Amino acid sequence: MSEIFENLKQAILDGDEDLVVEYCQQVIDDNIDPVAAIEKGLIKGIEELGAKWKAGEAFLPDVMMAADALKAGLDMLEPVIAESGATGGDAKGKVIVGQVAGDIHDIGKNIVGAMMTAAGYKVYDIGIDQPAENFLAKAEEVGATIIAAGALLTTTMAAQKNIIEYLKSKNVREKYKVMIGGGPTSQAFADEIGADAWAETADEAVVLCDKLIAG
């Protein structure tokens, strides 16, 4: 069992999308816990690569390839998790995840979405470069209670504030909990724009989601 997780982690570190797909298929075929495969395989790999990136031991092409491999793995395993009960009434809650307008960086968003899915949330990933109205439209459509908006550039942080202002303008601010995150953001910025929560890491995002859902 642990061998497949190690293989997944290494395939992410190597940025080998084909191998990730192969191992994820093995997870599905052998009825291995997909949540464990994400947490102990895919996420461990991307976290380790992130540490190498920070230490200057990995480079942007490595990160991009790993991100693509991660996405391929998540695309295969998340539907399996959904089928096994983390949907509808059994889900802890529904979360909209996306990168704000002008922001095209999706690695962090993908990791947050994966961790939230693994934690039992029904996650709706609306993608990158999304204006405020798209966050609200999706939340209204699926009945979500949490909106998680990421920004990886100082130039796109303002778009996180725009989401909150947009919700106010539509008189629905009270309906939704807004969580923000991303490299240049901070608790101080979250307080300034009136966000309900700020998470520095994907792990924190899950803990904060639990708190927001609990009330």
TrEMBL record:
The keyword Cell membrane does not apply. GO terms for molecular function: cobalamin binding; cobalt ion binding; methionine synthase activity. It comes from the Bacteria. It comes from Sporomusa malonica. The keyword Zinc-finger does not apply. This is Trimethylamine corrinoid protein. It holds the Pfam family B12-binding. Residues 92-215 form the B12-binding domain. Coiled coil: none annotated. One of its GO terms (biological process) is tetrahydrofolate metabolic process. Residues 1-89 form the B12-binding N-terminal domain. GO terms for cellular component: cytosol.
